[in-house]
Amino acid sequence: MSEEKSLEEVAEELKQIDGNVKAEVILVQRDYILYKEGEEGVRRLSERMNELGADLSFEKIKSSSWEKEWKNSLMTVVAKEIFNWTEEDVFEMGRYSPRASFFIKMMMQYVVSLDILFNSANIFWKKQQDFGEIESVELNKEEKYAVVRIKDFHTHPLLCIYHAGYFKGVLEFVTKSKGVTVEEVECTHKGGRYHEYLIKW
């Protein structure tokens, strides 16, 4: 999906996604927009989403309910356009998410090692979305890097950037390292078989 298309065209493409995400993911993004753009920003986002056929009445959404993934993806695209965000802003929203997510903070209480984190990655994934899967391909604690893949997850290219930021946020949480870097080294939007990320700390 090209970002050069109109929001209306992007919305129609994203509506073809057959998958759901926990509403908490959407609410955490709302909180980031509130932090960055204020209440007026949240109002503008909600209005534009509604114009595109994605009713987002935030006050009615329960964090434990399921929402259509296409709304989550479209929310990221709309935010970038109406606030004139850069890709770095999208990355930072992803990085913010695990620190603000009640579910992730609760689950992290049981993550006492990198082995547990990476071995449990797909369990965490499945509790927040009902399609796609995440695979821990390699973990090298001595050289401080890991490789993870997201399979069968086809939305908008901005979600690749969001997920890179998300992985950085999680690893900062677990390792306490200030030197975490994340690079997407294979991407389905660029002809790859899956989304593969190289994470270093």
Q: Mind explaining what this structure looks like?
A:
There is one protein chain. Helix 4 crosses helix 8. The chain has a four-stranded antiparallel β-sheet with strand order 3-4-6-5. Strands 1-2 form a two-stranded antiparallel ribbon. It is of the alpha+beta class and 201 residues long. The longest helix is centred in the N-terminal third of the chain and has 29 residues. The model has no long low-confidence stretch (mean pLDDT 94). It has one domain: H-NOX domain. The chain is globular.
Task: List the SSEs and their pairings.
Layout: H1 7-14, E1 20-22, H2 23-51, E2 66-68, H3 69-82, H4 87-100, H5 102-108, H6 114-119, H7 121-128, E3 133-140, E4 145-151, H8 157-175, E5 181-186, E6 195-200
Antiparallel strand pairs: 1-2, 3-4, 4-6, 5-6
Helix pairs in contact: 1-3, 2-3, 2-4, 4-8
Write a concise keyword list for the protein shown above.
201 residues; 4-stranded antiparallel β-sheet; 8 helices; two-stranded antiparallel sheet; alpha+beta; H-NOX domain; 6 strands
Write a short abstract of this structure:
By secondary structure, the protein is of the alpha+beta class. The protein has 8 helices and 6 strands.
Q: What structural category arises from helix and sheet content? A: alpha+beta
Largest sheet: 4 strands, antiparallel
Number of domains: 1
CATH architecture: Alpha-Beta Complex
Instruction: Give the spatial strand order of the biggest sheet.
Output: 3-4-6-5
Question: Helix count?
Answer: 8
Order of helices and strands: HEHEHHHHHEEHEE
> Level of helix content?
40-55%
Give the distance, in angstroms, between the N- and C-terminal Cα atoms.
31 Å
Mind telling me the CATH class? Alpha Beta
Specify the CATH homologous superfamily.
H-NOX domain
Low-confidence stretches: none
Average pLDDT confidence is 94
CATH topology descriptor? H-NOX domain
Rounded to an integer in angstroms, the radius of gyration calculated over CA atoms is 16 Å
Approximate strand percentage: 15-25%
Shape: globular
